[in-house]
TrEMBL record:
Chain's gene name: Perp_0
One GO biological process term: apoptotic process
Tagged with keyword Ribonucleoprotein: no
Keyword entries, A-Z: Apoptosis, Cell adhesion, Cell junction, Cell membrane, Cytoplasm, Membrane, Transmembrane, Transmembrane helix
Entries under PANTHER family matching the protein: P53 APOPTOSIS EFFECTOR RELATED TO PMP-22, P53-INDUCED PROTEIN RELATED
Gene3D superfamilies: 1.20.140.150
Membrane-spanning residues: 12-32, 77-98, 110-131, 151-172
Name of the protein described by the UniProt record: p53 apoptosis effector related to PMP-22
Cellular location(s): Cell junction, Desmosome; Cell membrane; Cytoplasm
InterPro entries the record matches: P53_induced, PMP22/EMP/MP20/Claudin
Domain of life: Eukaryota
Family stated for the protein in its record: Belongs to the TMEM47 family.
Pfam families given in the database record: PMP22_Claudin (PF00822)
GO CC entries: cytoplasm; desmosome; plasma membrane
């Protein structure tokens, strides 16, 4: 039976898969219209990273205004988008790093450092957005930061976790490469008479 621990060579694809999951959540956050929504009926407000939409209680059509007209809107979108692009680059580098037989551990640690940069950019965008949005955009009714905004934070949390693992992976270099001989524990016949 093969036991696959946290740092074994057979499980090397776990970290790139987690980065892929972070990319999917980042795409949902970038494309989703649920950064801010009305909390209850009547649903009169919704916003994405790119625009804010409102409608009257009896109106069925949304009236949207671009958040790119605001400096903070461009800053929030740019920082989150830059972080996302670097995340995609890190994913490609991780696939390359774990595809080659001789893993370069300094290369893996560099990916971890880049992932911390990704997290910093994404956190900046995720903090700028709600602070400035509530200051500059008139809100109607009870509103909440919703599912797409949550996916942005989920992507960031996964990136932070992967960054720590990528940075710490070289500490287990021998285990990952399989250079450590397994330890076998044998019982003496006196202690285990049923083995005779």
């Amino acid at each position: 039976m093969v036991v696959c621990g946290l740092a074994c060579w057979r499980c090397r694809w776990l970290l790139p898969l987690l980065l892929g999951l972070a990319i999917i959540m980042g795409i949902i956050a970038l494309a989703g219209r649920g950064w801010l929504e009305s909390e209850s009926e009547p649903y009169v407000q919704q916003a994405s990273l790119w625009e804010s939409c409102t409608r009257g209680q009896e109106d069925l059509n949304w009236n949207c205004e671009s958040l790119m007209d605001y400096g903070w809107g461009r800053a929030a979108a740019a920082t989150y988008l830059v972080g996302f692009v670097i995340l995609v680059i890190c994913f490609a580098l991780a696939v390359i790093a774990f595809s080659i037989e001789i893993l370069r551990f300094n290369f893996v640690r560099g990916i971890g450092g880049l992932l911390f940069v990704v997290a910093a950019f994404q956190i900046i965008g995720l903090v700028i957005y709600p602070v400035k949005f509530t200051e500059d955009i008139p809100l109607t009714g009870d509103n909440m930061f919703s599912w797409a905004y949550g996916f942005g934070w989920a992507s960031t949390v996964v990136v932070i976790g992967c960054a720590f693992f990528f940075c710490c992976l070289p500490n287990w270099e021998d285990e990952v490469l399989g250079n450590i001989k397994p330890t076998y524990y044998y019982s003496s016949p006196e202690r285990a008479p049923y083995l005779n």
